[in-house]
Amino acid sequence: MSWEAEWKQFYASDSGPTPRYGKNPFPKSAKRCKRCKMPSELQFCIVCQTEFVTQARLCFTTVMDAIAIQEEPNRAYEEKRAAYKAAKRRFKGLLELKSYGVTFEQTPYFRKELRRLRERLKEEKAIAASVAADTAEQKTAAHRQ
Known about the structure:
Elements: H1 3-12, E1 19-21, H2 46-71, H3 77-95, E2 102-104, H4 107-144
Helix pairs in contact: 2-3, 2-4, 3-4
């Protein structure tokens, strides 16, 4: 499945990112929200749950945008690297929710995509370095003649 199809499928889903508490949906055994300490029957109040989902959607969208930038052949390496770093930073922020025990069903997929982006950037950097070395070698050889 191409990144465009995955992106459209992600946006088409009305539910968006699916939060989990451990491996189950949020249980109803609390008197206060674990995060903001507001009175709530759930482990997390509706405001915090909404914030979690919004943060996850933003993170996953950033990863999809980084994939789109990576796929474009006429983008500079620096631009691709900046997009990857932004996606990685957002993803790290999303993973900090694990301190509350909150994860998302889509997290493993996007972790794999970030890993693929990193590998592509390493390959592109190696190619650019070898081309630069060849160019420098040719200039040196031409200068000697």
